[in-house]
Specification:
heterodimer, A: alpha+beta, Ubiquitin-like (UB roll), Alpha-Beta Plaits, 3 domains, two-stranded antiparallel sheet, 6 helices, globular, B: alpha/beta, Rossmann fold, de novo design (two linked rop proteins), five-stranded mixed sheet, four-stranded parallel sheet, 14% strand
């Protein structure tokens, strides 16, 4: 075997892959689809949504496929009962907390995994905010729809724009994407490049035109 | 109980503000010996003694020390003194009663790892410990134990204190690095591990306070002495934080692998309250409950892992049969929801859902399906969270439901019938 390829097994299928690629990339080589949410091919993989978790034989916990890299003789299961339970539960908890009406991909995934967000009851806490933030001429921020995938923070920071206008407020369930001291966007370092709007997967960030007139 | 304390031998004996007193009680003998034998020999001792990390994760210290020693360029040593696990107070006793021992442990670790800069990250709620350690560091600089060319051995070390600001997550090693770097305390993905890329992206040796002070007697007396205490796969002296309904709560130093019953009934003087043991929380909020029939278990990392419990940071919190166990579970659930950093979905969402269900359990308003739901939320947090906080956020609740005979039809815990 040439030293620049390693053997791994994905869902029972043995294959040779280049060392150092991610589990997600290896799975694609094997023709196996792994669902993702926070992952974006142009951005740092922060592995925060954990929807892409897989079972790696010998590992105590599940491993995020977007950030975990393959090692020789790795035996990986991408669709085991344990994996599906984790994905379904994450999707259910998310749908019970956040407005996913502008995220058809996530709704489809929830249905595919047989998820039922109503299991948590109608009184389960939701992340809701005081309306839409429209503090600038270019885009609006509708944080009822924000899943905290970090993409906007990443493009605003080291991954693209190096502007650092976006960060976090709060903690745990009450975490929010926010500007420093919640300042209105024109008072921040934001240069209105629009990259954050471009990468938002759930319609929480929208151009004003799209928000007002739907596209 | 014939054991003679080693780690805490000086606590309550020496003047914690006096370097002279520390030296008169054997202080800095270990450092001198370490410098005489050299960094590689020190690492060999730590490896042969099989010192396991005392912060809770039980990672072999020798592997970390060697890994950082072998890296090139600037590197760091960090003492994790954030001690935020509920029920843990061992590092505080050391820092307030024998602060020089921590500083000496940091110097030895830095010498072995070839690091010239060290940080001691102390929980912000410990003003007395911070003052004691700060004073000890200043005295060490003045006496030539810190700074340039320490003890004429051609080795330099700067040590600084950093204070936590109250977040439990900042005791997680990578979140702690973020905090020292001035960022929000989010845990990082691992790998890369701290020994490769830690503080400021440099190789970093991070150990708990207790782990670091284990190096002092070990360097002086050797691995054979060290390994006479406790089982071979989990050896050494151990600090146990005994609290709750026992006659004599407090810090107990005993060999690793001491039976829990001995800690409770001999060191602790027995159960108070109703006088009858209801259960014990081992390892703190991130640990596990065990039931009265399990109390002959040996208190070491390996044995407790086998019975689905955890030694963690050495917490032994005792509850008598009259304890409000539902109230306790409610506190634990709210603790994790409050302390979740919000980075990964399973923990950020799961700790909230867990609180909602446990609040219903505590109010005797469980709905059909709630217990199954709680289990799935717990399993998802344990399996899919990024760091130890989420991975352990369901453990205490799960083990309480399993081991205290929770009867959903009556809403009562069999073990805690008041």
């Amino acid at each position: 075997m040439p030293p620049n390829e390693i053997w791994i097994t994905i869902d029972g299928q043995a294959l040779k892959v280049p060392p150092g690629i991610t589990i997600l990339e290896a799975a694609r080589l094997a023709g196996v689809e792994i669902p993702t949410l926070c992952y974006h091919p142009s951005l740092t993989a922060n592995a925060v949504c954990r929807l892409c978790v897989v079972e790696w034989r010998g590992s105590r916990t599940l491993v995020a496929a977007c950030a975990g890299t393959v090692r020789p003789n790795a035996v990986i299961l991408t669709n085991s009962r344990r994996v599906r339970t984790a994905r379904r539960t994450i999707l259910e908890m998310l749908a019970a907390s956040v407005d996913l009406s502008d995220a058809p991909d996530l709704q489809a995934l929830l249905a595919e995994y047989g998820g039922d967000p109503n299991r948590f009851g109608e009184d389960a806490a939701r992340r809701t905010f005081d309306g839409v933030k429209a503090d600038n001429p270019f885009y609006v921020r509708d944080y009822d729809k924000c899943v905290l995938c970090w993409r906007c923070v990443q493009v605003c920071a080291d991954d693209v724009q190096h502007t650092y206008a976006l960060g976090f407020n709060g903690r745990g369930f009450h975490t929010e994407i926010a500007t420093f001291f919640d300042a209105p966007m024109p008072d921040t370092t934001c240069v209105f490049c629009g990259n954050c709007v471009g990468v938002c997967p759930t319609g929480a960030l929208k151009g004003k035109r799209e928000y007002l007139w739907g596209g | 109980m014939s054991y003679q304390p080693v780690l805490t031998a000086r606590v309550g004996v020496v003047d914690p503000a006096s370097l002279k007193d520390y030296e008169a009680h054997g202080g800095f003998r270990a450092l001198r010996h370490a410098i005489a034998i050299g960094p590689d020999a020190v690492i060999d001792l730590v490896t042969q003694a099989h010192v396991l990390g005392r912060g809770g994760a039980a990672f072999p210290a020798g592997i970390k020390w060697k890994a950082v020693n072998e890296e090139h360029g600037p590197k760091f040593v960090v003492a994790n003194a954030d001690e935020s696990e509920p029920g843990t107070f061992k590092d505080r006793v050391i820092m307030e009663g024998d602060p020089f021992s921590l500083v000496e442990g940091v110097i030895i670790a830095s010498y072995a790892a070839l690091a010239e800069k060290a940080y001691i990250y102390i929980r912000g709620e410990y003003p007395q410990a911070i003052a004691c350690v700060q004073q000890a560091i200043a005295a060490c600089y003045a006496a030539g134990y810190l700074g340039e060319n320490i003890l004429g051995a051609g080795f330099n070390l700067q040590v600084e204190i950093r204070k936590g600001a109250g977040a439990y997550i900042c005791g997680e090693e990578t979140a702690l690095f973020e905090s020292i770097e001035g960022k929000r305390g989010f845990p990082r993905l691992k790998p890369p591990f701290p020994t490769q890329s830690g503080l400021f992206g440099r190789p970093t040796l991070i150990n708990n306070v207790e782990t670091l002070i284990n190096a002092l007697p070990l360097v002086l007396y050797g691995p054979d002495w060290y390994r006479q205490f406790g089982p071979s796969d989990s050896p050494g002296p151990k600090l146990y934080c005994l609290s709750g309904r026992v006659r004599h709560p407090g810090l107990v130093e005993a060999p690793m692998g001491t039976p829990l019953s001995e800690l409770i009934y001999e060191y602790g003087g027995g159960v108070t309250g109703s006088g009858e043991l209801g259960g014990v929380l081992l390892g703190g909020a991130a640990g596990a409950f065990i039931s009265p029939e399990m109390i002959d278990v040996f208190m070491d990392f390996a044995t407790l892992r086998e019975i689905d419990a955890a030694l963690g940071s050495g917490v032994v919190m005792v509850f008598d049969t009259s304890a409000d166990i539902k109230g306790v579970l409610k506190r634990i659930a709210h603790f994790f929801a409050h302390e979740s950093c919000g980075k990964c979905f399973p923990c950020q969402l799961g700790t909230q859902r867990q609180v909602e269900i446990i609040d219903r359990l505590a109010a005797d308003r469980l709905r059909p399906g709630d217990l199954a739901l709680l289990r799935e939320v717990g399993q998802t947090m344990t399996d899919a969270s990024i760091c130890g906080l989420g991975q352990t956020a369901a453990g205490a609740i799960r083990t309480a439901l399993d081991r205290f005979g929770y009867e959903a039809s009556t809403g009562e815990f069999y073990t805690f019938q008041r």
